[in-house]
Design brief:
The complex is a heterodimer. Chain A has helices at 5-28, 36-59, 63-82, 93-107, 109-132, 137-140, 150-160, 169-189, 196-218, 222-255, 263-296, 305-325, 331-334. By secondary structure, chain A is mostly helical. The longest helix of chain A is centred in the C-terminal third of the chain and has 34 residues, at 222-255. By secondary structure, chain B is mainly α. Chain B is built from 13 helices and five strands. Chain B has a three-stranded antiparallel β-sheet, with no helix packed on it. Chain B has a two-stranded antiparallel ribbon with strand order 4-5. The chains are: A mainly alpha, B mainly alpha. Chains A and B meet through α1, α2, α3, α8 and α11 of A and β3, α2, α4, α5 and α7 of B.
Chain lengths: 335, 266
């Protein structure tokens, strides 16, 4: 049987147009919260459109009306059933920074420690390689200025007094920020290779770090090394690790070992944490980029090593406090 | 929550689908038409051009500030370009419900694969995953995954649980074209109309309707042949008195058939 299509359309069209208008208004502002009457109207119109769709799907196979209705119902469905996803709450940067970020980090700490263990293993490997196979240095060092002997570099830096960057600090800092953020986000994105890409990236970064560190230590330049690396490294390296952590959270959701939800549900649950960790890492890298360009590249006699090391230690303590304790619920104030 | 029918094995399996069916808790199902990789590539090219155009404007403005501090402009350039190129799709897809400029022009949209509203996290994740989708060059990873997965998802879509769909403009059929029909030879034969309505399946009725709706687009020869075939088919469905069918063209006969099928007038 075929329904009387022109009557049907003439009767229902005003309701479809009304639904379309409500949905359009909602789409124009992601944070808009509907007043109760409008919400009721939306629900009523949506149910009517859904019923119309069911009718038209059974009685005629009229493609245009059907597609138009399907489109309306799909939009209505997304609004009605997806509304609780973010609760219409506006994003609050301060709350995100002081609560969401540290809480997310703690919730996913296992992935962080896994990334950390990989980097430590990589550094061990890099250190051993440079100790037992000094010619491998050329292959292991990430930047050309690290291929000269540490003592030579220290002597050169002391002569230069940071002049090589005197009119390019901000520029250098911007380059560091974007480059490091790119690498960190790649570490996250490589989580989609079941974590294998992230694993390789974490390990290889560890290898470079270990090789550089041992090279300087064996050359007797430990103080220079600490003064050079600590101010930015204590933030930059954890940021890299947070990128790796995000990658492993993603990989964990992808592999879903021992979990019963299907893939889509696992990914959906992991997405907010992954995104929070990415933004956290990017923020840390902005800070590290500033410190690296404006502080780390100055060595003795411009800035004493002790001051740089102390600065690094303070940063590290703040970071540990932030990761471990920031945003915890205060038990006493509850009673 | 709505459930997509094909959530079991999003990875490489069985043939690609062009349509994704979603069943709502109300028991109604609707479908999304998936966008082809070619359309998506075209949208991407438009977006890249939009970013390049926006950046050329910003870079020109920044070059003026170089007179004040070359160094600081370097910082703003490096960070600004990074934020613009990475943030463009995130911002537009979030503000415009899954659309960028390119997607808007080509009527594409990012949707949640369960038919739910896109969350901010999904938008960010699918765009950050571009870091892997562009590897090793020219979106090879993303392009290959999109071609190989059933629902044309690149890695970013798989991670965020999103799909890119195609929403062609849908107009309601214009029924008024048939409303003013002066005389319909079938109308006077109530029994024939009743038998026709019983015998014609919805698919047949739609075919007749579509043929009439698009008749102006056909070549004259094809038009004659098509309506001859259709009229032959519909005439064979039920016996008709000669005065109802004689002396009218095949096309006019089909107009009469569609008229009595779709519009009931008492």
């Amino acid at each position: 049987m075929i329904v009387n299509l022109d009557h049907f359309i003439a009767e229902e069209k005003p309701h479809w147009e009304r639904l379309d208008a409500v949905l359009r208004r909602l789409a124009a502002d992601p944070y808009r919260r509907l007043p109760i009457e409008e919400a009721r109207e939306l629900e009523r119109l949506y149910q009517r459109a859904a019923a119309d769709l069911a009718r038209i799907a059974t009685f005629t196979a009229e493609p245009e009306v059907r597609r138009r209705l399907e489109h309306l119902v799909a939009r209505g469905h997304a609004e009605i059933h997806g509304a609780h996803a973010e609760g219409g709450r506006r994003f609050r940067p301060l709350e995100w920074f002081t609560r969401t970020l540290p809480q997310t980090w703690r919730r996913q700490a296992r992935a962080f420690w896994f990334a950390f263990a990989l980097m430590v293993a990589g550094s061990g490997f890099g250190g051993l390689a440079i100790t037992f196979d000094p010619p491998s240095k050329a292959a292991l060092m990430p930047f050309p200025h690290l291929r000269e002997s540490p003592t030579e570099r220290v002597a050169r830096e002391m002569r230069d007094r940071g002049r090589q960057l005197s009119d390019g600090k901000a520029n250098f800092s911007g380059m560091l920020m974007t480059h490091n953020t790119r690498v960190t986000l790649t570490a996250m994105a490589l989580g989609m290779t079941a974590g294998i890409g992230t694993l390789i990236l974490m390990f290889s970064n560890g290898v470079m770090l270990g090789a550089v560190a041992l090279d300087y230590i064996m050359d007797g330049q430990t103080t220079f090394l600490l003064g050079w690396l600590l101010p930015h490294g204590v933030v930059e390296l954890p940021a890299m690790l947070v990128g790796g952590q995000a990658g492993f959270v993603l990989a964990g959701a992808l592999l879903g070992r021992g979990r019963r939800e299907h893939l889509a549900a696992r990914m959906r649950a992991a997405a907010p944490d992954v995104v929070t960790l990415c933004f956290g890492a990017a923020l840390m890298l902005v800070w590290a980029g500033i410190v690296e360009a404006f502080l780390s590249q100055y060595h003795e006699p411009v800035i004493p090593y002790a001051a740089k090391i102390a600065f690094g230690a303070v940063e590290f303590a703040a970071l540990v406090w932030f990761a471990g304790w920031a945003g915890r619920a205060k038990r006493k104030s509850r009673s | 929550m709505g459930r997509a029918c094909e959530t079991k094995e999003p990875f490489m399996s069985a043939p690609r689908v062009n349509v994704l069916q979603v069943r709502t808790p109300e028991g109604v199902s609707f479908s999304f038409r998936l966008a082809s990789p070619v359309l998506r590539l075209a949208a991407l090219i438009i977006d890249l051009a939009a970013v390049a155009a926006a950046w050329s404007v910003i870079a020109t403005i920044l070059s003026i500030f170089q007179l004040i501090s070359k160094d600081l402009v370097g910082l703003v350039t490096a960070v600004g370009y990074f934020v613009l190129s990475e943030g463009y799709s995130i911002f537009t897809e979030w503000r415009w419900r899954g659309q960028t400029i390119g997607k808007r022009l080509l009527r594409l949209r990012v949707v949640d694969e369960g038919g739910l509203r896109l969350t901010f996290a999904q938008v960010v994740l699918r765009n950050l995953l571009r870091f892997v989708d562009v590897l090793p060059f020219a979106y090879l990873v993303g392009g290959l995954t999109a071609v190989l997965t059933r629902r044309g998802q690149r890695l970013g879509d798989l991670a965020a649980g999103t799909l890119v769909i195609w929403e062609p403009a849908e107009a309601l059929p214009n029924l008024s074209a048939w409303q003013g029909e002066k005389y319909n030879s079938l109308r006077t034969h109530g029994a024939v109309v009743a038998r026709l309505r019983q015998a014609v399946s919805p698919a047949e009725a739609r075919a007749a309707w579509q043929a009439l709706a698009r008749r102006e687009e056909l070549e004259p020869d094809a038009r004659v042949r098509l309506f001859a075939e259709l009229a032959g088919h519909f005439r064979a469905l039920t016996p008709m008195p000669p005065e109802a069918v004689d002396g009218i063209s095949d096309e006019q006969f089909m107009r009469n058939v569609v008229d009595v099928l779709y519009l009931s007038r008492s």
